[in-house]
Hints:
- By secondary structure, the protein is α/β, with parallel strands linked by helices.
- The chain folds into two domains: about 10-75; about 90-150, Arc Repressor Mutant, subunit A (Orthogonal Bundle).
- It is about 30% helix and about 20% strand.
- It contains five helices and six strands; from the N terminus they run βββαβααβααβ.
- The strands form two sheets. Strands 3-2-1-4 form a four-stranded mixed beta sheet. Strands 5-6 form a two-stranded parallel sheet.
Amino acid sequence: MGSREPCRHAVTRTRFGPVAIVWENGKHGPAFLQVLLSKPGLRAQAIREKLFPGSVASSCGLVDDLAARIEAFLGGADVSFSLEPLRLDRCPAFQRRALLAEYGIPRGRVSTYGRIAAHLGVPGGARAVGNALATNPFPIVIPCHRAIRSDGTLGGY
């Protein structure tokens, strides 16, 4: 029985609080498992400790680059992110499809949960899309804020 290498994490400070990046060594470098944002009263480090106990603090060039891109994005810069190092395979199939559709929405544009559901071939699936985006493991990299309710207001996700 082989032992699995523990996952790793790096924390970057942003104007909106700490962001934790959790990753593991992949075949071609770091493979990102999750990006954790701080929430009111709950820092990203505490969320990381709960979800990934035993992860080891570590970094490398690709992790540092992602951290810098997240900081720049949160600072208002027009930043693009690659999906290549994301472990999207850890997401259920429908969530993965919803996340990829969301990722395709250009900066400065929005869509609705219903339109995304229709695009995915699930008419009436707006709530399912909202739930898939609400548990996005890669916020900022895949920006869920580009989906809104059909009435033009922000959703509860």
